[in-house]
Structure prediction request, 475 residues.
Amino acid sequence: MNMISTRDSAKEGRSYSDVLLAGLAPDGGLYVPSEYPLFSHAELGALKGASYQDVAYAVKKRLIGGDIPDEDLREMVARAYSEDSFGITDEGNIVPLVRVEDDFYVQQLSLGPTAAFKDMAMQQLGQEMQHELKKRREHLTILGATSGDTGSAAEAAFKGLDTVTLFMLSPEVGMSAFQKAQMGMLSGGNIFNISVRGRFDDCQDLVKELKNEAEFSKLGAVNSINWGRISSQVPYFFSGYLQAVERVGDVVDFVVPSGNFGDMLSGYIAKQMGVPIRRLIVATNENNVLDTLFKAGVYELNSAQVTSSPSMDISKASNYERLAFDVLKRDAQALTKYMKEFESKKRVDLKDYGVSADDFAKLGFSSDTSTHANRLQAIRDVYEKCKYVIDPHTADAVTVGFREKRSDGVPMICMGTALPVKFEDTIKEALGFVPERPARFKDLEKGLPENAFQVIDVDAEQLRQYIREHAPISG
Ligand SMILES: *Cc1c(COP(=O)(O)O)cnc(C)c1O
Prediction:
């Protein structure tokens, strides 16, 4: 697979494995394939009824394009999506559709080790990074920052891998007891949890500061712009589609609760790869940067507010650059100007670039916003209809999904991005009770070992010392 940067007009290609270990391209752009591989209806039909592992293998094989030997890829997919790491599954299906009412489904993507859809990408990313590092005989030290979900998903995926050492910064105050326990229990071996006496922004600033220094510039990242993560999210749109339709060729609508636009972008890529998706519906919470974008064509930086679907509390949507590249007809020069204008003026209008929100609609996109009251109502509605409890992020998707549903028999699939166990306060507010926890999360908070977190001040020197003491920087 030939990978190019959204900002590189020279179109100098790199391979899939090259970009797997990289974050941003050196020119500041994001990596995308030079073209999307296409599945025919016959090829899609051959996957109908296949296990998730088989679907993931087929889709990733095309996106990797020969860079990883088939046999190795098969083993990685099997390890990433084993019944072991996904707990009890619906007859082995790790991404089942839950029927809410006729032609309306929640696709549950959160049965993985940390109960969030981020496991779907991280589990596979861990396997692929280990494979590539072994091949190169290299070791990678990763430094990341998390406000909750990403940290635990990354730690669960990288735990025990001998090629990777992971340092994860998190704010001392702000995470839930459940999130703290999820991360703390993974401390030890190659996983180092560092609690910063500050906020999430302080954690991010510390990461940026160190990565700008020669000594730490080689530290790796696992943030949501990594192409290995995006490409590992494409298969579950194939799987959701194949589960929902009677015949390949029939269309479906997807609605995705969006923050950094990684999940929704993966759905767009599935559509470009030939999955007959009619509509790609973006659901935001009160932080509705993306809703404004898709309705008006204006991309404007926002100051994020804290909501009850916190994993979508974003001020900008980093992965949008990849879609903007396509909307600007893959003109890297225009894209670079567009993104630079956004970075300097905090606002950019597609109209000034000869395209508009209509061009999003032509690709199947639409959007809407959900609020705290909407979330509570959606949690109640779904529970009343089918006795199933959804989490607040999924509730944002369901809110918009109900609004947008047409009575034309086309299945609407809402992406279920976390389990309710992670957000029990909001569930209690909506339903008046908290559902029984899955067995593996019972009493989780009580299992938090002492000294699971190294506590530091917002002080780069303390962080430098700690990393030097505990890891090889690169190998
Ligand atoms: C990260 C996350 C999202 C948003 O996904 P993006 O890819 O950032 O758009 C939605 N729901 C949950 C539970 C998440 O953890």
DSSP finds 19 helices and 14 strands in the chain.
